[in-house]
Design brief:
4 copies of one chain form a homotetramer. Chain A is built from 5 helices and 8 strands, in the order βαβαβαβαβββαβ. In chain A, helix 3 links the parallel strand 3 and strand 4. The longest helix of chain A has 17 residues. Chain A has a 6-stranded mixed β-sheet. Chain A is of the alpha/beta class.
Chain lengths: ~190, ~190, ~190, ~190
C-alpha cells in the first residue's frame, strides 16, 4: 500500500511557537503529531509525557514533535485560556496547534475529521516527505514507537541516527547494588 | 569506528533452550544479550522485564533475546538450582546461559570479562553479522532501545520491520474516557 | 495543644451533591477535605486518586471525603464549566465545593485563606466534633494517612472501625506464583 | 470473636538481629509479621517494600516489623546463603527468621503450617498482648494497613500515636507547580 500525503492541518491558533507550523514548513523532518485533549486522562497521564520524552531523547534528530488540541467534547471546558494554563503547569514545551472547529455543527474538529481519528490520544507519524505512515489511537508502547521513529529517521538520512554506534556514556556510581543495577567496584 | 566482532560466549550451562547458543548459530539474527544477576534488584525490577517485552513485541522479527547470568558477587547464593527456580517464578522464557567462572580466582566470570562489562544489568546489541554494536550498563530507555534494535533489524533486512506501515489495530472500547484515552463514540 | 474548630467553608457552588455541604451538616463524621486545583499536576496524578481511594475503602465508615477547588492562579483557566468536565472525565464522585473568590483582589480564595493553606494539594482532617486535626501540603503517604484517619474514626466510635478483626477475605487464584504472590496449591 | 494467642514461631536461624526473636520477647509491642519467599515476585515487588516502609514510617512507635522466610517450594533454591545475599542486595534491615522445615516430609514449614498461611506474601498483625488480630494473603492496601496498625497501636498506648496532632512539617520548595503540587509563592 502506497503511503498517501498527510492531510494538511487546519488550526486556529498555535502555542509554544512564534509562528504557525505546517506540513510544508516541516518537510524534510519526521513528524510525531500528538493529538490530545487537555481533560483526557490517558493523554495527561501517558500520551503527553511520552511525546515530551520523544522530544527530549531525539532532540538531535531531524524530528519535530507537534501537539494538536483536538477537542471533540466539553468544548466550553477546554478553551484557549485553559489550554494555555495547562501547557504551562504541565511544562509542555513542544508547539501545540488548536484544531479548527468542525463545520456545520460537527463536534469533531476539522483536522481530527480529516485524519478520521477515533479519539484521543492519537499518535501520528509523518515521514520527511510529508506522507502519513502511522496512526494509532490509544497509548503506544515505547519500544515500538522508538522502532517506528527510527525507521522514518533512517529513511530520511543516509546514516544511522540513534545511539547504536555511540559509546556507552551512562555512568553509575561505583557502589554495590542500587535500584538501577550492580556495579563491579573496581571498574 | 569499525564495529568489531562480538567476543564468543563462554558458558557452562544453558536453560530454556534444548541446546547451547553460540554467536555462530545465531548469525543472521540481531541479538539482544541481557547480562544479569538473579539477586540484582535493578535487573529484576527493570532489566529482565524489558528484555521480556522485547522478546514479545519483536517476536516476528529476526531477533534473538538471550540472557547471560554473569555472577560476580555472592557466587554461593546464585547457583544453578537457584537460577532455575528464579527463571521459573519470574516466567523468564528466553534462553539463559550461565557465564563460565573466572580463571585464577577472578570473581568476574569469563564472558563478562571478555566484554569488559562494568556490572549488571548490561544490555548488549550484536548485529546480524555478529558484530558488537552497543553495550550499555544500567537500565536503558525503551524509546532508545527500540530505535537501536530497529536500526540493526533494518540493516539485516531489505524492508521495514516494525509497525510503521501496519494498520492501527489497537481497539479501545467505545466508551467516553478511560485510563487509556477518550473515544469518539460514533466511530 | 488543644485542637481548634475548623474554619467554616466559604463556597460559591457545589458539584456532585444535591445540596451544599457545611461543617455543621457533617458533624458526627470524620472529614477528609482535599483542596486541589484541576490544573495542578500533583493533584491530578496523586492527590485526587488518593482521596478517591479513601472514599472507596472507607465507604462503610462515618467518614466524608470532600473536595474543595481552591484556585489561586490561572483563574480564567479553571472556571466552573471546566471543573465540571474535569470531574466527569476523571470520574471524581465525591462532593466538590468551589472556594469563594478572595476579597479585595486577593488571588487566594476565602477558605484557602482562612485555613492558611500553602498551596495544592492540601489534605485536611477534621474530627467528628468539627475540630481541625491535621493539615498537610503536598502528597501524603498512604500508610500515614490511613493511620491518621483511623485515629479519628476510633475517637468517633466506641469500637474498632477498619479491618483488624475482619476475616481475611481476599482470595487469590490457586496457581503457583503470579504478580501478587505465591499460593500453596493445596489450600 | 475473641482473638486467640498467636502461635509461637518455630525457626532455625535469624538474620539482621543479634538474638532470636520470640513473641514473648516482643510482648508490649505491636508486631507486623511479613511472611515471604525470596523468589516470590509479589513479595519482592510489593510485600517486602511495604514492610520496609512500615518499619521506617512507624520507627518511633512501639511496633516491631519482623520477616519470616517461609519456603514451601524450590527449597534447594532458597537456602540460607541465598537468603543472606538477598537481604543484603535488597537492603532489608528488619530481622528475618527462617521458618523451620516441615515435619515428616511436609513441604510447608512449621510456622507457616501453624498459622495455616495460604501462600506468600502473608501479612500478620499481632497485638501488644500477643494475640493474632489480622492475617492477609496477598498484597495489602497501604491505607487499610495503616488504619489497622494504628488501631493496635492506639490500643497499646494511652494517647494517639501517629501524626494526627503533629504539625505539618513537610515543606515543598516555594516554586509554582512541580510533580508534587502547586505552592503559593508568597508563603
Amino acid at each position: 500500500m502506497t503511503p498517501r500525503p498527510a492531510p494538511e492541518w487546519r488550526t486556529t491558533t498555535w502555542l509554544n511557537t512564534p509562528e504557525p507550523l505546517t506540513l510544508e514548513r516541516l518537510r524534510g523532518k519526521v513528524i510525531l503529531l500528538h493529538a490530545f485533549q487537555m481533560l483526557c486522562p490517558g493523554c495527561v497521564a501517558r500520551g503527553i509525557p511520552q511525546a515530551q520524552r520523544v522530544a527530549e531523547l531525539f532532540a538531535g534528530a531531524p524530528l519535530a514533535v507537534v501537539g494538536l488540541h483536538t477537542v471533540f467534547e466539553h468544548h466550553e471546558a477546554m478553551k484557549l485560556e485553559s489550554l494555555r494554563a495547562f501547557l504551562h503547569e504541565y511544562r509542555v514545551k513542544f508547539p501545540v496547534g488548536v484544531d479548527a472547529p468542525g463545520e456545520g455543527g460537527n463536534p469533531i474538529p476539522r483536522t481530527m475529521e480529516a485524519y478520521a481519528m477515533r479519539g484521543t490520544p492519537t499518535t501520528i507519524l509523518i515521514d520527511a516527505q510529508g506522507r502519513l505512515r502511522r496512526q494509532l489511537f490509544g497509548v503506544h508502547d515505547d519500544l515500538l514507537l522508538g522502532a517506528e521513529l527510527q525507521t522514518l529517521l533512517l529513511e530520511a538520512q543516509a546514516g544511522p541516527v540513534a545511539g547504536v554506534q555511540r559509546p556507552a556514556t551512562q555512568v553509575l556510581p561505583a557502589a554495590a547494588c542500587d535500584d538501577t543495577g550492580c556495579a563491579v567496584l573496581s571498574r
